[in-house]
Amino acid sequence: xxxxxxxxxxxxxxxxxxxxxxxxxxxxxxxxxxxxxxxxxxxxxxxxxxxxxxxxxxxxxxxxxxxxxxxxxxxxxxxxxxxxxxxxxxxxxxxxxxxxxxxxxxxxxxxxxxxxxxxxxxxxxxxxxxxxxxxxxxxxxxxxxxxxxxxxxxxxxxxxxxxxxxxxxxxxxxxxxxxxxxxxxxxxxxxxxxxxxxxxxxxxxxxxxxxxxxxxxxxxxxxxxxxxxxxxxxxxxxxxxxxxxxxxxxxxxxxxxxxxxxxxxxxxxxxxxxxxxxxxxxxxxxxxxxxxxxxxxxxxxxxxxxxxxxxxxxxxxxxxxxxxxxxxx
Amino acid sequence: xxxxxxxxxxxxxxxxxxxxxxxxxxxxxxxxxxxxxxxxxxxxxxxxxxxxxxxxxxxxxxxxxxxxxxxxxxxxxxxxxxxxxxxxxxxxxxxxxxxxxxxxxxxxxxxxxxxxxxxxxxxxxxxxxxxxxxxxxxxxxxxxxxxxxxxxxxxxxxxxxxxxxxxxxxxxxxxxxxxxxxxxxxxxxxxxxxxxxxxxxxxxxxxxxxxxxxxxxxxxxxxxxxxxxxxxxxxxxxxxxxxxxxxxxxxxxxxxxxxxxxxxxxxxxxxxxxxxxxxxxxxxxxxxxxxxxxxxxxxxxxxxxxxxxxxxxxxxxxxxxxxxxxxxxxxxxxxxxxxxxxxxxxxxxxxxx
Lengths: 329, 353
Ligand SMILES: Cc1ncc(C[n+]2csc(CCOP(=O)(O)OP(=O)(O)O)c2C)c(N)n1
Ligand SMILES: [Mg+2]
Known about the structure:
heterodimer; A: alpha/beta; Rossmann fold; 6-stranded parallel beta sheet; 11 helices; B: 2 domains; 7-stranded mixed beta sheet; 14 helices; 18% strand; binds thiamine diphosphate
């Protein structure tokens, strides 16, 4: 931190902070209520990683497309996805964004330009490239962004996708969240220590940049450059940000005790909380007061409460709907 | 005293004993050496065999399948694991174009002794991409063998056979069988590939099933017995090569066949079993064979839909009853209770099997 740009508009900074906070509070509310066993599907929480979603999506309009993978709540919300529909989806309700057919791992909100998230690692990368390809063919000025974990760069489809994106100079931005782990497997058992993603991707002729994934301003600025590049028709960009998942890979709890990573490592990253660190900076800069934070938390909490009530009180999909939407008409 | 262990432990033991007897056996897959050890099936192996033979891997299933195949061609015996069956789909080219055909297309000069363990992740909203049952797809590919053990005894014996076999074997585990228990000898032993087993004898109807659906069929057979219908439950165990003789023998005895296959309906494996009976035992059939499958749909996540998606005991009972021209019955009438919500395994019927 500390690289915080003082010329940046204070209102924008506050917006970034509060948007991160909103994701955090939603995820914590899910974690808190998960043990009620009413959300009967796997959930991959993004607590600790909120800055990337917010810093990236701040540059996108609803016209632009975003896709994601299994850990997608933050991306969906940052892109403007409907909170009520997301929670209802996790509750398996008919009012959910996928009518209850998908659950947490299959979020979508077309009004917000969120084209979908699916949990087969790497699966949405070429699809986002395809969305950019379609936009280019149609002469539209949208860009597509795909969020992925660092493990997705190990899939063959990643290489194939960036190759094609580069070949056609597509307006697509690959945003890699490097949180050091794939489930319980550290990078060291998956990638050589010499591997350098930026160099690899650059080798395909693609604009690359990387940075601190817990510093929303840095992310915001790097994305600004990447978006400028893509919007000018100069081709794809690849951004990689270092960050850390606080809770277990899948589910609401902490799992530092099971032996794949250390409590110290976790505590170290916790000190670098993207939200509290940024909040401190804004307070030091005197653009933010405790009262404002308190009021915002209150407002967000009320919104979340309302969205949970909506989800809980919504009906389940009726049995007769089981066969709907297998084929399009 | 005979020893009772879980399905998970049976897989673990088969792996450990196979590795101890054959230094060319190694196991590789995402999370194999991690603290959860593929639902416990690989726990402790890295301490025993070291991290060269007990391997994590990059999230690169397609390439790693090819790597496993290549190593098998030159003398290794890899076991590749996927925590969900669905993840194998990104590597189908290597499996179908290479592993399955290598021996044949090069005139028998090389073979590909590889086992691919797949786990079907039913329940708790696993949904469209984490709970698929694609046994029919694999059984359709000449050159692959496909096993779907139901009991812990078979889980061990079939895994040992699969590892020793000189061909690619797709070994499908259903997550809801992992915690069932059964009698499993401590010593290493094999269960032959390609042999079905009668798990319950009966004279009135053959219920042919595999994997988790055998358990549901056995429960159904118990209820049917109370109403005087004695069903023979045939556990297919191996889908490819299919033990057609056992199907024919049983149908010749009972004159009726219901196939229960935990997979989608159209072009599914149930049809193959029914075709076997109609082709080879037509004269013995008193009614046309019937099948119970999943609907032709992706698995929905919402429990409200998943609960109607998956057939269960009552559906098997009523399918059988209709084959006897008897009216259907309800779960209430039969006293079928669920001690758990339907999207998690029933704890009242976990063995020993
Ligand atoms: C093709 C495929 N292989 C394996 C999995 C199992 N899996 C689910 S999430 C995950 C971890 C992916 O790690 P990463 O992409 O870094 O994302 P993170 O969970 O760290 O956010 C894995 C391996 C999967 N979903 N799809
Ligand atoms: Mg990761």
